[in-house]
Amino acid sequence: MKKKLGLFCGFVFAMIAQFISADDVSHPLVYKIDIKKEISNTTRLYLSNGLAEANALGADAVLIHMNTYGGQVDAADSMRTAILYSPIPVYVFIDNNAASAGALISIACKKIYMRKGANIGAATVVNQTGAAMPDKYQSYMRSMIRSTAEAHGQDTIIQKNDTIYKWKRDPLIAEAMVDERVAIPNLIDTGKVLTFTAQEAQKWGYCDGIAETPDEVITQYLGYKDYQIKSYTPSWYDDLKGFLMNPIFQSILIIIIIGGIYFEMQTPGLGFPSAAALLAAILYFAPLYLDGLAANWEILIFIIGVLLIAAEIFIIPGFGVAGISGIVLVVGGLIMALLNNTNFNFEEVSGKEFGEATLTVLVGLVAGFILMIWLSNKIGHRGMFRKVALNADLKDAISSPDLSPLIGKEGIAATVLRPSGKVLIDGEFYDGVSDSGFIEKGRRVKVVRFENAQVYVENIIP
User: Fold this and answer.
1) CATH T-level assignment (fold) for domain 402-459
2) What is the pLDDT of residues 185-207, one digit of tens each?
3) Which of these, 382, 336, 61, 89, lies nearest to 214 by C-alpha position?
């Protein structure tokens, strides 16, 4: 009886041990990230957040499920860098298309798998109309896609007594996807940009296998028969943040910032322009700050610049050091917030990144000044701002002092009038605006009218 009881207990313990050990066996975790839209800051966030979560979960592999016609080169550059330096191997399954920027990202992956009928290539840099950009843009793209292919290294092949080194992904083939001048025997002649089908890509080393689904890639090619899969789920915040970081939208925000500051200075106390400028500044800096690009000191530089411009206009007569310094700080703060620099160290910032940031800001500034000039003609008793202007005129009529006794009096320009500044009349200083162009400091002037607590003067010719 004791013997039977001992055998039974042994059997039970063996079953429990087997159950526990089976529970302890960890299944490989494959983390999947979908890139199925235009390459932009939004998809860059998808990949960045997905790789971070995959690292946190200890994933064995990352699989990008791709279907894209391309998009922004700067976002693609950031994505391919993240893939190349990822501690977890990153694979890609091309489901129909990996064109342009999508091709660059795919080439960065450790292995490329394609669906039948899928395509990869056509990585020429184009503008919004689809026309090829100048060669300096193509040159950078050629170098970037070539170095991405080279990053995968070479295979060493021993043939008899000869040692041959063969690229795992031929950089010249990658370059042919960008430059129509590249010719490769038995593959492509000059005058054409290279695009592969799945079978062609497999033949030339740019596809490591053909599959119909991500599951087929994982089981057949990655070798994980019993695995877990987790997919990255984008949040509404990812889409919002990506939209706010779009260069075109950033330029629009700069237009609103500059326009709001200008119109608030033209009609102090109106409120709406300053509120619009403040909101635009928050929308501009907030996503950059949260993404780690904009630092506290860069935002502070921008704020100091705005305050210096305001001080130059409202406190310090004329336009000099404070105003110029303010403009430099505002522009500098906007540009540096777009750069991935550490304090004042710009060693890791490429000339291309600096140029793109500068272009984004300058486009916004130029467009903002053009818009200000156009809208300035619309503000008054007609046009889109007629109600605002009438309300401002009514407010000024109620609160502004009566300067009618000064009409016809003479004084001197206490500052340079370009056309605004300060004038001295009967020993008192007044805000003055020249009605006769530029007036030097110290010249005699005559008051011809007043408006909005300002006297309008003319130069008295000796």
Assistant:
1) OB fold (Dihydrolipoamide Acetyltransferase, E2P) (2.40.50)
2) 999 998 899 999 999 999 999 99
3) 61
